[in-house]
Design brief:
- InterPro entries: P-loop_NTPase (IPR027417), Sulfotransferase_dom (IPR000863).
- By secondary structure, the protein is α/β, with parallel strands linked by helices.
- It has 18 helices and nine strands.
- A four-stranded parallel beta sheet has the order 5-4-6-7, sandwiched between helices. Strands 1-2-3 form a three-stranded antiparallel beta sheet, with no helix packed on it.
- α10 packs across α11.
- The longest helix has 15 residues.
- The termini are far apart.
- The N terminus is likely disordered.
- Bound molecules: adenosine-3'-5'-diphosphate.
- Adenosine-3'-5'-diphosphate binds next to α5, α10 and α17.
Length: 343
């Protein structure tokens, strides 16, 4: 697969990153290159993470060299699609849906040998800043078009080559009710740090010092971009996807310039994508079960950690009404006048 992708006729659809990443690209970390810059940034601890305040966001320290390299060196292709999210807001699901939509020419969603039945979505679509952190840009060059990549960086930290300068590269963002995000984040972090208290995670979200936060600034960075450039930035909500996944799949396909044809609609391809990427189907796959290994950027995290409950409203099982009202209040105040709200 690697040689096909790199050297010969370029397929018209993405291939799983893991199938292209054949392990032959040497790594050279840019860490030393930006070491002084990182060391000069304000820092704080959160859970097991060392955070640095970088252009208004508390990024995990080890992300920053890759972020800078990404900002300086990324050259987008016309049909690139960057999937973006704040962590625990539906990244894995969005990756699965986007891959299934974009790869449907070569991999019909109902096919028994579909890559998403053997690979975790994080193995199909790479974290772009992680690629740059490892100095592995050659892997990106080897990906056939359209390339699908993802990031947890806010819009304001994406490279100029993506956000300005006439690039027609598209960005899809998924957000989620911050109350459910914080519950999901706590469960996720506890896989690596079992003693972590919910209260500590909650407080860090409320005061804006959580990793990749403040959350409201993250969400607003993409919201504003989607309002200013709706053709280039698609803004989705996890809760809307849950309510009508088929509508989300159609929107995604249209936005990526590959709408479902009447024949595909009649054949039930939209429903097949929804089914392929459904929580129960993905959680039940061998590769995503406990012991199924680790994935993508989260090399220390087992793949099953990405599939917990997959619902809206689980916050009610973890926080008091007072806590919920407090977080809602903080977020409402920050979003006021922007046209964006969480129900
Ligand atoms: P919960 O912890 O609330 O269950 P991310 O992919 O950004 O890390 O987000 C993880 C959250 O998305 C988890 O939420 C996870 O269960 C949920 N999720 C993962 N795959 C999903 C799917 N196919 N459908 C719906 N939700 C999914």
């Amino acid at each position: 697969m690697a040689s096909t992708a790199a050297n010969t006729a370029v397929p018209s659809c993405p291939v799983p990153f893991k199938d292209v990443d054949d392990g032959t690209v040497p790594e050279h970390t840019p860490k030393d290159e930006f070491g002084d810059l990182v060391a000069a940034l304000p820092r704080r601890h959160q859970s097991i993470l060392e955070l640095r305040l970088f252009h208004g966001f508390w990024l995990p320290e080890h992300w920053i060299p890759g972020t800078i390299a990404f900002q300086r060196r990324f050259s987008p292709r016309r049909d690139d699609v960057v999937l973006a999210s704040y962590p625990k807001c539906g990244t894995t699901w969005l990756k699965a849906l986007a891959f299934a939509v974009a790869a449907r020419g070569a991999h019909p969603p109902a096919a028994g040998d579909h890559p998403l039945r053997r690979l975790n979505p994080h193995d199909c679509i790479p974290f772009i800043d992680e690629i740059f952190a490892g100095g592995e840009e050659a892997k990106l060059h080897a990906l056939p078009s359209p390339r699908l990549m993802n990031t947890h960086l806010p819009y304001t930290l994406l490279p100029d080559s993506v956000v300005t300068g006439g690039s027609s590269c598209r960005v899809v963002y998924v957000c989620r009710d911050p109350k459910d995000m914080v519950v999901s984040l706590w469960h996720f972090l506890r896989r690596a740090e079992p003693e972590l208290s919910f209260a500590e995670t909650f407080e860090s979200v409320c005061d804006g010092t959580v990793a990749v936060g403040p959350v409201w600034d993250h969400v607003l960075s993409y919201w504003r971009a989607s309002v200013a450039c709706p053709d280039r930035v698609l803004f989705l909500k996890y809760e809307d996807l849950l309510l009508d996944t088929g509508a989300g799949v159609r929107r995604l396909a249209e936005f990526m310039g590959m709408p479902f044809s009447a024949a595909e609609e009649a054949a039930g391809d939209v429903e097949a994508v929804v089914e392929l990427c459904s929580f129960d189907k993905m959680k039940g796959l061998e590769v995503n079960k406990p012991g199924g290994g680790t994935a993508g950027r989260y090399k220390a995290m087992p793949r099953d950690a990405f599939f917990r409950k997959g619902v809206a409203g689980d916050w009610a099982n973890h926080m008091t009404p007072e806590m919920a009202a407090r977080l809602d209040g903080v977020v409402r105040e920050k979003l006021e006048g922007t046209g964006l709200a969480f129900a």
